[in-house]
Specification:
The protein is built from six helices and seven strands. By secondary structure, it is α+β, with helices and mostly antiparallel strands.
């Protein structure tokens, strides 16, 4: 007899305890957004793999990546997923009909975040992220959650700037991390090649 495979639950995700504080804060800030995030449990595992265990997850919310790296709306990039803020970076993990989509941006690279009201289809707002040469856009549903993300991002950026510098992970370590994500099917060969080119 064939049965449906069970949808993953929060308890089934390794390292999900790292999200407890951020999820609790989100539930208090916007219960509807909290429900949206819980509906994306399938991408949480990939998200947690992109964020090193040494980094605290400060915030998490639903977002849809809807632009290419130059900030242009591109239907081929549309990816529903989760955007998380850690003590060191912003991390996105999503799914689309084209496959999985991921992105990480170090807080020291983030030069701006803005919220454009009704800046996207179906009344969604648009969160614009400027990080180095990239200009990414994320459709968001909750203004309160996004304002909280922006506030926490500002605080986290100030903490990163005031922190004494430490040695960065080696290029080899970064390549091994991205190769592992590729080998697990979390990112595509093209995404791996793009990241490899950036690192080298």
């Amino acid at each position: 007899m064939f049965g449906r495979s069970k949808a993953p639950t929060l308890d089934s995700i390794q390292g999900a305890d790292r999200l407890a504080s951020a999820l609790g804060d989100l539930q208090r800030t916007d219960p509807k957004e909290y429900s949206q995030v819980l509906n994306r449990v399938g991408v949480m595992s990939a998200l947690l793999q992109l964020a090193p265990a040494s980094e605290e997850v400060l915030w998490i919310q639903y977002a849809m990546l809807c632009t290419d790296a130059y900030g242009e709306q591109d239907i081929s990039t549309f990816s529903h997923g989760l955007l998380a803020l850690t003590t060191e970076r912003l991390v996105f993990s999503g799914e689309s009909t084209m496959g999985n989509s991921t992105g990480t941006w170090g807080l020291s690279q983030v030069s701006g975040v803005s919220l454009v009201r009704n800046g996207f289809t179906r009344g969604n707002d648009l969160l614009r992220l400027s990080a180095g040469p990239e200009q990414r856009g994320f459709a968001v549903k909750s203004v309160r959650a996004t304002q909280e993300l922006a506030s926490r991002l500002d605080q986290a950026k100030r903490a990163v700037v005031s922190k004494p510098s430490r040695p960065e992970a080696s290029v080899a370590d970064e390549l091994m991390k991205w190769a592992s994500l590729r080998d697990q099917g979390i990112i595509s060969e093209e995404e791996f090649a793009h990241k490899k080119a950036q690192l080298l």
